[in-house]
Amino acid sequence: xxxxxxxxxxxxxxxxxxxxxxxxxxxxxxxxxxxxxxxxxxxxxxxxxxxxxxxxxxxxxxxxxxxxxxxxxxxxxxxxxxxxxxxxxxxxxxxxxxxxxxxxxxxxxxxxxxxxxxxxxxxxxxxxxxxxxxxxxxxxxxxxxxxxxxxxxxxxxxxxxxxxxxxxxxxxxxxxxxxxxxxxxxxxxxxxxxxxxxxxxxxxxxxxxxxxxxxxxxxxxxxxxxxxxxxxxxxxxxxxxxxxxxxxxxxxxxxxxxxxxxxxxxxxxxxxxxxxxxxxxxxxxxxxxxxxxxxxxxxxxxxxxx
Length: 306
Fold this sequence. Notes:
This protein has 306 residues and is of the alpha+beta class. The protein has helices at 3-14, 46-58, 111-120, 136-141, 185-188, 204-221, 241-247, 276-294, and strands spanning 19-24, 36-43, 63-66, 72-74, 79-86, 93-96, 100-106, 123-124, 145-146, 149-150, 155-161, 168-172, 191-201, 254-255, 258-260, 268-270, 303-305. The radius of gyration is 20 Å and the shape is globular.
């Protein structure tokens, strides 16, 4: 079946016009670079999500879920598949307050928004995530963390939909197999739609002050004024990626519009007009140089599609 006919059928099935054909993925990812996807569909509820997944499965269409796009890069050659994005219907939040606070969040809610709402309610334990530029679902998918905190420390359960859209189930926190920048969702393909956190009650002023301090530290040490995907490389055991890169003399190195940040060598940034190819070539150059000098192979933290 031709692409236009597939997209027409999907639009009719979901009863939505929120489908972008030949979607320019540079507009949906924080690197602001990359090629086009066959189509991008934004779903607003579980019924639409499950229908889109079942359609893709039955028609053998490659498909992936995209969160806030803050840890993803699409190759310039593009992605001949369907990108599914959770819409505002998955940005809900519910509180059960007490000495132990339970918070439920929809997977499309931004971490920064969730942290701000929790702070207003005097809920502590989520401060570390306040400056991470991603969504709840993406954070759980990759066990996001910062400043000594990780999702694995606070996730009580995850409600998810199967890759073929035919099942729903809850994963308890201990079933998520959280590891360094990993979760079971990367292995089984299930899609998080809702997450429940176990947190604690605290003092609003103290929580707010901690968040401001962490964000000030982040802004001072990281190149937040340029498009990037956050830390480009995972932390190798026994080392720090940024220090290895700096010690290899790579700080400020550029390929096209991509640069190893002069503020923090662990970040590759888009200085302006970078293509995905520029970024990928710079990643490979950094990997090879660090390996040649120190015998350590850096592993990208960025999810590369296509």
